[in-house]
Design a protein that fits this description.
The protein is of the alpha/beta class. The protein folds into 2 domains: 164 residues, FAD/NAD(P)-binding domain; 138 residues, 2-Layer Sandwich (D-Amino Acid Oxidase, Chain A, domain 2). The protein has 7 helices and 16 strands. β11 and β12 form a beta hairpin. α1 runs parallel beside α5 and α2 crosses α7. The longest helix has 18 residues. The chain is globular and about 60 Å long. Bound molecules: flavin-adenine dinucleotide. The site of flavin-adenine dinucleotide has 40 residues, from α1, β9, β13 and α7.
């Protein structure tokens, strides 16, 4: 396995559980190199329908059934809200997605007491979930090592030197040598600490220019994300983006004004020109990439298809192209 990002680790565990002997190799010194380290960890197949193809939504729904066997996931759903002055945003989002319930103020307060009195209407996607990406990546490495799978960081070898019968290439943006058109889509995020607010689930704030989500983590930490910028140059967070993220968080709940900023960060989402995931066979190597803005959501279903393809040589539900 090349790459110890979410795709590589989930595929490695899936392959191991299918009875294969597996080893994982990553160029980076530790887990913090990949896009997944800086991500939200939302598992949102229904909300992603706003910007994604039916194929992506279907993969995401399959993954929701697979995640509980791989890691600790919170299956508390997603709450979608809009600024009170823009009720049409909620109606538009409802039209573009399915599997939601329309909530009034009392139901919002019952689900998230911290938001009581703030939103008269909301959409609730009960079938969605979230996880902590950093805990999950660390946990996946632990599960792999417990299962006897060596996971090597700081790897300096070459793919051609590997004696394996088959190689899975899950290098994210590191696979540009093999996938012309693969690009990075920059996403900036913040981690903040607030003891004044408690949320049980991701809250998405719709906005025509600066949509935002807040994902609760352990011990009062919240991930606030994320920008979507067509650029794969540099990982600096700009003053403008930092300001917009924090201002919008403050719009979700004014108590975020007093939150402590723990971290600003940015990641590059690996994306193909059509923003769809790809599975490709190149000789003994199966390449899986292009997870774009839903790598956590898609990884388990893509891993099942890749491993199924390795074992049977038959395509799974994700179209696989031989080149
Ligand atoms: C701000 C932000 C928020 C996001 N929020 C969400 C979200 O809420 N839900 C969701 O589903 N997705 C989200 N994503 C998207 C998700 O993080 C990505 O889709 C996912 O990380 C892609 O996984 P990957 O394993 O393909 O690539 P990566 O996570 O980038 O991992 C690639 C790995 O390959 C390694 N590598 C590179 N080159 C080599 C080499 N030559 N040899 C060996 N190893 C190599 C790298 O070191 C890295 O560890 C978000 C992304 C960002 C940036």
């Amino acid at each position: 396995m090349l790459g110890a990002g979410v795709m590589g680790l989930v595929a490695a565990l899936t392959a191991r559980r299918a009875g294969l002997r597996v080893a994982v190799f990553d160029r980076a010194a530790d887990l913090s190199a990949g896009a997944g380290w800086r991500s939200g960890g939302m598992l949102a197949p229904e909300c992603e329908a706003e910007v994604s193809s039916p194929a992506v939504v279907a993969l995401g729904r399959r993954s929701m059934a697979l995640w509980p066997a791989l890691a600790d996931v919170a299956l508390n759903g997603t709450l979608v809200v809009a600024p009170p002055r823009d009720p049409s945003a909620l109606a538009r989002f409802a039209r573009m997605t399915t599997s939601h319930a329309s909530l009034g103020a009392d139901a919002v307060a019952a689900l998230e007491p911290a938001l009581a009195g703030r939103y008269g209407r909301a959409l609730f996607y009960a079938g969605e979930g979230h996880l902590d990406p950093r805990e999950t990546l660390t946990g996946l490495v632990g599960r792999l090592r417990d299962a006897g799978v060596p996971v090597t960081f700081g790897w300096t070898g070459e793919e051609a030197e590997l004696a394996a019968a088959a190689v899975i290439d899950a290098r994210g943006l590191g696979a540009r040598d093999r996938l012309p058109g693969l690009r990075g889509v920059k996403g900036e995020m913040a981690l903040v600490l607030s003891r004044e607010i408690a949320l049980e689930r991701p809250v998405r704030l719709l906005h025509h220019r600066h949509p935002l989500y807040v994902v609760p983590r352990r011990d009062g930490v919240f991930m606030i994300g994320a920008t979507t910028i067509e650029s794969d140059e540099g990982l600096a967070v700009t003053v403008r983006s930092a300001g917009e993220l924090l201002t919008q968080a403050y719009a979700v709940h004014p108590a975020f004004a007093e939150a402590e900023v723990l971290e600003f960060n940015a990641g590059l989402r690996p994306a193909m020109p059509d923003n769809e995931p790809v599975i490709r066979r190149v000789g003994r190597t199966i390449v899986v990439n292009g997870l774009y803005r839903h790598g956590w959501l898609l990884a388990p279903a893509l891993a099942a298809d890749v491993v199924g393809y390795m074992l049977t040589n038959e395509e799974g539900k994700t179209p696989c192209v031989s080149v």
